[in-house]
Design goal:
β1 and β2 form a beta hairpin. The chain has about 325 residues and is α+β, with helices and mostly antiparallel strands. About 20% of the residues lie in helices and about 30% in strands. The protein contains seven helices and twelve strands. Strands 4-7-2-1-9-11 form a six-stranded mixed sheet, with no helix packed on it. Strands 3-6-5 form a three-stranded antiparallel sheet, with no helix packed on it. It has a three-stranded antiparallel sheet with strand order 8-12-10.
């Protein structure tokens, strides 16, 4: 058995999206690259390169793969031509002109389509149209400046979902009077960030523009990197406050083992005011040998906080 293909990270380009759907078609057919090569008559490297997303495959190779996987050759031929035109530097619309066909059948199931239907009175405005299936966050406090890598899985409940608001609150730490207060937000995978939404002194909102509009029931994974600017102190807590339906939250905090916190405690469904209280309301948690503390939450209520709070070394209770 040959080596599996590397994960494909969608970056908004037409060729990456084309490769994504071609991989999806192969996955729905249940074919290995070796089986696909035998069925198409092309070499394994050729069929593999067609699904890498680095270059646009030729039309004969594409249609051979589609035919071997039992796909709709006519529709795929039209889609191939759209992408080819979009890659022309003189094309006025570029990737925006590419509209993938509404794939039906096994490919939809392979992509993770659920049973949700778009409501008849749906206005297709945020936050309506999606919910959060899971959030997994790793907060690093053992780095020069605090940073978090966050992986989210959302499920569209509305056809045509094209963007998701990403809002992050970064409260000032008590006693911080510095004039500047900010947050660096970058998209690692699953879309691109665009400005928009309300901006306050300690609240930052962007829009995640999805690589392709989602159909109702489709799951989508995206990752963000959040970084506190150098020399900016961080408030001693990290909390997820769901503003819409959120089913699962996993938080890992890695503390600096050279400066361990005096105490760490769990916050489970607390009002916002409780988040800022510096007295542990639950038994203290222990760090493991790597300086990590991990907690998980389910059945979360909208508007309440879930996460961790801590007393820093040298601080008073």
């Amino acid at each position: 058995m040959g080596r599996p293909q590397k994960d494909l990270v969608l970056d908004g380009s037409a060729e990456r999206l084309f490769a994504y759907w071609l991989r999806d078609l192969r996955g729905s057919a249940g074919l290995t690259l070796e089986q696909l090569a035998r069925r198409t008559g092309y070499g394994r490297t050729t069929v593999s390169d067609a699904m890498r997303g680095k270059t646009h495959p030729t039309r004969p190779v594409t249609l051979a793969i589609v035919g071997a996987c039992g796909g709709d050759v006519r529709r795929w031929g039209e889609y191939w031509a759209q992408v080819r035109r979009a890659l022309d530097p003189h094309c006025p619309d570029g990737p925006a002109a590419v509209t993938p066909p509404p794939w039906d059948g096994p490919a939809d199931r392979a992509a993770g389509v659920h049973a949700e239907q778009c409501p008849a009175d749906c206005a297709r405005t945020e936050p309506h149209g999606w919910y959060t299936e899971s959030v997994s966050t790793l907060l690093r406090l053992d780095t020069p400046t605090p940073e978090a890598l966050e992986r989210r899985i959302v499920v569209a409940t509305c056809d045509g979902l094209a963007r998701i608001p990403v809002g992050v609150s970064v409260p000032r730490r008590a006693g911080d009077t510095t004039p500047d207060h900010g947050l660096e937000i970058s998209a690692v995978r699953g879309g691109r960030l665009a400005d928009g939404g309300p901006q306050y002194e300690s609240y930052f909102e962007r829009f995640l523009i999805l690589p392709v509009p989602l159909r109702a029931g489709t799951r989508h994974v995206y990752e963000l990197r959040l970084r506190i600017p150098p020399a900016q102190p961080m408030a001693p807590h990290f909390v997820h406050v769901p503003l819409t339906r959120s089913e699962h939250f996993r938080l890992r905090v890695r503390f600096d083992r050279a400066k361990p916190p005096r105490a760490v405690w769990r916050l489970t469904g607390v009002p916002t005011a409780v988040i800022y209280q510096r007295n542990p309301g639950t038994p203290a948690l222990s760090l493991d040998e790597h300086g990590l503390v991990e907690v998980e939450f389910t059945a979360m209520k909208v508007g309440y906080g879930y996460g961790l709070s801590w007393l820093e070394a040298g601080s008073a209770a």
